[in-house]
Design brief:
This protein is an alpha/beta fold and 299 residues long. Helix content is 38%, strand content 16%. It has one domain: Glycoside hydrolase/deacetylase (TIM Barrel), CATH 3.20.20.370.
Length: 299
């Protein structure tokens, strides 16, 4: 079986929880015009606050209506600022995954600093939600040559910062291995709804992507990822669009709406269908190391 209960496709949803962990003086999103002086960027900060006040509760309602269990990648600062929201996400059956100490890059840190950055975020999520993250997403998907071994040391079993496949796979490490549950750029609200709010185009894209992968799923393992950010894809009109997309998916038989930790565990346990991609030692340019790699399937 490619998936549990012989499902034809796994559909997984990411909910990025970043509210309250942004740089308060950095303009971002719908307010890219810089302001003069050393002052907090109040419009941008209020945009991030929207996520906690309106966006995440609305997204959780959508997931409940469709029986979807998402993976929420949480920064440590977000769960500390909004602990009730973090706990509610987990209480409703969603995964709490790691997204660093704050909404910032970590690939440019020294190894010890990078490990502390990741570990601090994990510790905050675990302390507040009671759930220890086993999955990782870096800011802008950018990791260092040390990240995978750091994740292994912190008992993570998978990361998502990869766009190379429509299925999970395994990367061998010097002392074991780590699962990969590939992320998405083109099925991401950040790229489709941030500055050009074209809901009709995004809806068409999501449905077409699903239909093609569902068709391919008859012969090989297929997975589709949808990404919502707490302040973007949670707007009222966007939620109505996602509602129609999920309804379209649910009309098909054999669709597994899965958390990413569930997908990672299944792929690691059912290796007969899981690619093992040996990327060799990481080079100076960082992941994924040399451009030439060896792929095999477990026998």
């Amino acid at each position: 079986m490619f998936w549990p209960n012989n499902a034809r496709i796994a559909v997984t949803t990411s909910l990025m929880f970043e509210a309250g962990s942004q740089d308060p003086q950095k303009p971002y999103g719908p307010f890219p015009v810089p302001q003069e002086g050393d002052f907090p960027d109040l419009p941008t900060n209020s945009w991030f606050d929207y996520a906690a006040n309106e966006g995440i509760p609305r997204a959780l309602g959508l997931f409940d209506r469709h029986g979807v269990r998402a993976s929420s990648f949480m920064t440590g600062m977000s769960v500390e600022r909004y602990p009730d929201i973090a706990r509610e996400i987990v209480e409703r059956g969603h995964e709490a995954a790691a997204h660093g100490r704050r909404w910032a890059s970590s690939y440019n840190l020294a190894r010890d600093e990078e490990k502390k950055f990741i570990a601090d975020g994990i510790a905050s999520v675990e302390r507040i939600t009671g759930h220890r993250p086993v999955g990782w997403n870096a800011h802008a998907m950018r990791n260092s040559v040390n990240t995978l071994e750091i994740l292994q040391e912190l008992d993570c079993i998978y990361f998502i910062d990869d766009l190379s496949r429509d299925e999970p796979f395994i990367i061998p490490l010097p002392k074991g291995e780590i699962g990969v549950v590939p992320y998405t750029a083109h099925l991401n609200d950040l790229h489709n709804l941030l500055n050009v709010y074209n809901l009709a185009q995004f809806e068409f894209l999501l449905k077409e992507e699903f239909d093609q992968l569902y068709e391919e799923g008859a012969k090989r393992r297929r997975m589709m990822d949808i990404s919502l950010h707490d302040r973007i894809g949670t707007r009222p009109a966007a939620i109505r669009m996602f509602d129609r997309v999920l309804d379209h998916m649910r009309r098909k038989e054999g669709v597994w709406f899965a958390r990413k930790d569930e997908i990672a565990r299944w792929a690691l346990a059912h290796r007969e269908h899981t690619p093992i991609v040996d990327r060799g030692p990481a080079g100076k340019t960082g992941l994924p190391g040399p451009s030439r790699f060896v792929e095999r399937r477990a026998s």
